[in-house]
Amino acid sequence: MEATSTLALSSAPAAARRSPAKAVVASCHLRNFSVPAFHLRTVRGLASRALSSPSFPGWRRKKGSGLVVRAEMFGQLTTGLESAWNKLRGADKLTKDNIAEPMRDIRRALLEADVSLPVVRSFIESVTEKAVGTDVLQGVQPEQQLVKVVNDELVQLMGGEVSDLVFAKSGPTVILLAGLQGVGKTTVCAKLAFYLKKMGKSCMLIAADVYRPAAIDQLTILGKQVGVPVYSEGIEEKPSRIAKSGLKEAKSKKTDVVIVDTAGRLQVDKAMMSELKEVKRAVNPTEVLLVVDAMTGQEAASLVSTFNAQIGITGAILTKLDGDSRGGAALSIKEVSRKPIKFVGRGERMEDLEPFYPDRMAQRILGMGDVLSFVEKAQEVMHQEDAEELQKKILSAKFNFNDFLKQTQAIAQMGSFSRIIGMIPGMNKVTPAQIREAEKNLKFMESMINVMTIEERERPEILAESRERRRRVAKDSGKTEQQVQFLPSYLITIFIHV
Ligand SMILES: Nc1nc2c(ncn2[C@@H]2O[C@H](COP(=O)(O)OP(=O)(O)OP(=O)(O)O)[C@@H](O)[C@H]2O)c(=O)[nH]1
Question: Where is the SRP54-type proteins GTP-binding domain (predicted)?
Fold first, then answer.
């Protein structure tokens, strides 16, 4: 089954102007509607800019199809998993037999994503065991049920809960960063300081990478950029001594958090490990975090294991996730090394470091917002036949004002607008202010529709043809004629194909 739900977004051009997320989503769907060229150009122009903005890493124009875009972070894995769900279409429950083929697809998708083989094996075993014999929820299709099991297992695989930074009970919290060359360690130092500053902590960076003078300069520049002092003694002193003196200074200044940048090597070697051990002994860190590059796939997971075995670490920071279309590192690290991913880097800007949320990551891998809850909610308030009828109407461009009202009423029954927006893929960047604005716009549109005749509601085109009708609607609803004129084009509907 293809459960389709629609959400009418009012004033798409205005909303798109404020939010790149809306611009992109609206532009994806605009092509199905007859909207005035003026609006089309506005939204497409905005979407085009949004696509090149850092908020949309991995989003691309699809060749030859205008502005239709899709998220490519983990895109390969997402596509692979989709083929598994598709194979279950039409089934009425999950059985050992009918999930065999979808499970093969999932296995292949995970291996192609560069997830390590033992992890894939245990994952498949656990999903199969949980999927077969689970009672399919009332109103949820078997393929949805499998998505839910896979989602839950992915969350577990990536550690279940968010793994927060640990802070020292007294004195400065010391975070020691380690990692191979070029993985983004120095950048992470500054990003982390920026993040902690936003939490209200005072920070100091210590430049203990003495082999690459440029690293000290880089840290100094980044420190300035984020407004955090950088302690350095040049390249003559031993890293452990620099770290120790830096910590002493941080203590005297009552700094909350000290972040130590260490030297990277091209590969793991004895000298690097013994130097790290020495620095660790000198500053007794609260957190030892290994910075790994997401693009190295399962190799990143084995590096975390190696560093943990040799120096003892508390977690990992996964950088360059914005360029990772496979996902093997994010999926393998916890399972292989038993150490959690604490943060992920998703771009070069200082803002592009965030805590690692296994649940959000799983949803992203599955290419969905909180789709399952959305489907459950939608099915509570919308009959299957209605949904299919509506889908046909939309596809044949016969969506009228009555359908629109029916949809807004169904949406109102599903809960608050903000909660529903949060469940929709791609809409998680919409702010509360934008949601309030959308709610206001919906009411604005409803007030115009409420004063229309039955015929006008059923055939929006007669409004477009008759100035007299538009004037009457404007007068009765207290709006301007121009606002009524644009009403049909505001009915830009977002499809959610589940
Ligand atoms: N796209 C993207 N680039 C990143 C990310 N993190 C770091 N980079 C870039 O990766 C490059 C290397 O980062 P550095 O911070 O210099 O790496 P390093 O590990 O300190 O390197 P060494 O000092 O040589 O060991 C820089 O160009 C960063 O801007 C990220 O999350 N996404």
Answer: 340-353
